[in-house]
Structures are given as C-alpha cells and as structure tokens.
C-alpha cells in the first residue's frame, strides 16, 4: 500500500507549457496505480510564493476526480518556496490518519520541480526531516533549465531523480517509476 503526495511546482520559473506538462504527468501516473483504501491513495500540493493543498489522501478515490481537482490549481507568478510545501505536509500531518494516511502504507512524495528553490537549504532540511520519519522521495525535474546539481543535494540515490524535459518522457516515466522505486518499498515505522 502506498500513500503518495504530489508536490507540484507552480512558481514563476515554470512556464505555462511545463505547468500543463506537470498536470499531464500527474494524470498519467495516477492512472498506473490501483486506487483505494487497500491500495494507493493520492494527495496533492502546489507551491510558489506559498504552498497550497489541492487535496488530501482521502478526498478522492479515482483518477478523474483527482485530475479535475488539480485542474483548478493555478500557476503562480512568484518565488519557488518549495520548502513551504514540505513544511505544510509536516505541520498538517498530511500523511496522518486524519488526512487519509494509513499506518501500514509507505509514504511517498513525488516532488515536481525545476530544481530552483528560493530557500534551498530549508527545502533540504524538510526533505531530511521527512526521510527520517520514513517518507521516500522521487524528484522529477521539469523544464529546460533543470538544476540537476541542486536536485542531487536532496537525495543520495541517483535513481530517485527523473528528468522530464521532453514530450517522450511522459510515456516511459510511470513504468520506470514503478519498477525502480515502488517495487522496492520496505516496511516503515508506524504513524501516530
């Protein structure tokens, strides 16, 4: 079982083309999972100047409803405060049972970003804090100007970084993601 929260870049450094690419990527990927109480649950956040929750893990049980909810999110025109999205997940316990999280599910963050962060050190600290609590990450680099070096500072596993900068990437990403990350899920400690 998986609890996955997508953290989606809505900052000024993401152009309209890549905003729509992220939405398409989300739609394609969630359709690869069996969704439901005993399988996979999905939540979503966006970040720009601030972080906004789009929906919790238990708000939607099918991909169509998730896609409609995400379509209502707006592309921002400001800074890339990615740390705020992660801090909000922690502060509001978005992987907790009140938000639809399950104690026996592996927590995942699928972090969509161009790698440019207004406060990179704060983002790195939030990632480390979440990893210590058992959350696993996949970083998806979006755009033509992806800062791969900054993405590398957020993870110690090169396989946790996927670059999505061509139209063809969307076709193979779900399979690569499933094969390289989710098939190796290990037990994690219980949530409180």
What can you tell me about this protein's structure?
This protein is an alpha/beta fold and 192 residues long. The chain is built from 6 helices and 6 strands. The chain has helices spanning 16-30, 63-71, 82-91, 120-132, 148-152, 169-180; strands at 2-9, 40-47, 51-55, 106-113, 136-142, 161-164. The chain has a 6-stranded mixed beta sheet, with helices on both faces. Helix 5 (148-152) links the parallel strand 5 (136-142) and strand 6. The protein is globular, with a radius of gyration of 15 Å. Mean pLDDT is 84; it is low at 183-192.
Topology of helices and strands:
Elements: E1 2-9, H1 16-30, E2 40-47, E3 51-55, H2 63-71, H3 82-91, E4 106-113, H4 120-132, E5 136-142, H5 148-152, E6 161-164, H6 169-180
Calculate the terminal CA-CA distance, rounded to whole Å.
Answer: 17 Å
Q: How would you state the average pLDDT, rounded?
A: 84
Principal-axes geometry comes out as globular
Q: How many whole angstroms does the radius of gyration measure?
A: 15 Å
- Number of helical elements: 6
Could you estimate the helical fraction of the residues in percent? 25-40%
* Structural class designation: alpha/beta
Q: Enumerate the spans where pLDDT stays under 50 for 5 or more consecutive residues.
A: 183-192
Record field, number of beta strands: 6
Largest sheet: 6 strands, mixed
Numbering strands along the chain, what is their spatial order in the largest sheet?
A: 3-2-1-4-5-6
Strand-and-helix sequence, N→C?
EHEEHHEHEHEH
Q: Strand content of the residues, in percent?
A: 15-25%
């Amino acid at each position: 079982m998986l609890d996955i929260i997508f953290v989606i870049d809505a900052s000024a450094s993401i152009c309209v083309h890549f905003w729509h690419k992220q939405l398409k990527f989300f739609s394609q990927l969630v359709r690869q999972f069996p969704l439901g109480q005993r399988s996979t649950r999905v939540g979503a956040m966006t970040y720009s100047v601030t972080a906004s929750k789009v929906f919790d893990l238990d708000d939607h049980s099918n991909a169509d409803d998730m896609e409609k909810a995400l379509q209502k999110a707006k592309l921002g025109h400001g800074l890339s405060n990615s740390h705020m999205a992660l801090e909000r997940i922690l502060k509001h316990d978005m992987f907790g049972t009140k938000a639809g999280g399950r104690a026996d599910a592996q927590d995942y963050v699928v972090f969509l970003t161009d790698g440019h962060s207004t406060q990179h050190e704060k983002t790195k600290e939030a990632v480390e804090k979440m990893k210590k609590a058992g959350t696993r990450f996949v970083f998806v680099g979006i755009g033509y100007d992806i800062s791969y070096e900054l993405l590398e500072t957020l993870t110690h596993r090169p396989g946790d970084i996927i670059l999505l900068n061509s139209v063809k990437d969307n076709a193979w990403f779900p399979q690569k993601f499933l094969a390289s990350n989710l098939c190796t899920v290990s037990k994690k400690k219980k949530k409180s």
